[in-house]
Design goal:
two-stranded antiparallel sheet
């Protein structure tokens, strides 16, 4: 005789749920019987995402860098759905452009959303996770394993959330809370197709060796993330080859610098590298 599905009747919170991976994760969580709180910044897209989710779902529009709004939302989620058993810190944005020509205001915003926003999300919902002996999943990236040129803020923020996740896991494991980190490669979301997404960054991605040059469907990515949630995995490698990259990560900085030297030179000679943002 099998037990109940692990997510049935549970409350799950997903940040960055307006679109892309977050929206797909919310849908898969609801399909497994969870009550889902979708947190995001774009009101129209967020409401559309919540309406499309099967079962019990509600949207909360907020900026994850707003500590007061997160605290208020955490209270409202608990009142409407019960205490959270799952929190998926997925909200994130990215920029493309050389560091020396980037706006530091934009650079700082990336770190605040991706790193500080994740920490504030964990802080707001951790009391509920302690009460439910729940699970927190931090969405990171291949960028945490191997940094890439033209993405210094994004890579720094994803490396930061990796370290934060490991620290948090060590602090709360004895209290029954599971903490996991998800590594994923390029995902076929709106950011990839956004016309603002820089052609030079797409070219750099194309120069990456297979399979790192591929883009992967958001739906299959979300499915693997939710399977990791069901198993309370300490690490979720959405693409299996990322485990191998993790094993040789100390070699990556030199390899990336060697490969980028030629690509960056070609891009600079075209004199069209300038900052642009997507997220």
């Amino acid at each position: 005789m099998t037990g109940s599905p692990p997510l049935l009747g549970r409350t799950a919170v997903v940040t960055g749920a307006s679109r892309g991976i977050g929206r797909a994760v919310a849908h898969h969580l609801a399909a497994r019987g969870a009550r889902v709180a979708l947190l995001g910044l774009e009101p129209g897209e967020l409401e559309s995402a919540a309406t499309a989710v099967p079962g019990a779902a509600r949207a909360w529009c907020l900026d994850v860098t707003d500590e007061t709004a997160l605290g208020r939302t955490a209270d409202e989620v608990r009142e409407q759905f019960g205490p959270a058993s799952v929190v998926v810190a997925n909200a994130g944005i990215a920029t493309a452009g050389p560091f020396c020509e980037s706006s530091m205001a934009t650079w700082r915003r990336i770190v605040e959303v991706n790193l500080v926003g994740s920490a504030l999300t964990a802080r707001a919902f951790l009391p509920q996770l302690l009460a439910t002996r729940g699970y927190y999943l931090q969405v990171s990236s291949l960028a945490a394993i191997g940094a890439a040129p033209l993405m210094s803020a994004y890579c720094a923020s994803k490396s930061g959330v990796e370290a934060f996740t490991h620290s948090l896991r060590a602090e709360v494991a004895h209290r029954g809370v599971g903490v996991g980190i998800a590594y994923l490669s390029w995902t076929d979301t709106e950011m990839i197709h956004d016309p603002r997404y820089r052609a030079d960054l797409r070219e750099l991605r194309a120069l990456m060796p297979w399979p790192a040059s591929r883009t992967y469907p958001a739906e299959s990515t979300a499915e693997r993330l939710v399977r990791g949630i069901e198993h309370r995995a300490p690490a979720v490698y959405v693409q299996s080859w990322l485990r191998g990259v993790q094993a040789v990560r100390t070699l990556l900085p030199g390899l990336v610098a060697w490969r980028a030297r030629h690509a960056m030179g070609a891009l600079e000679r075209r004199d069209d590298i300038a900052e642009d943002a997507a997220g």
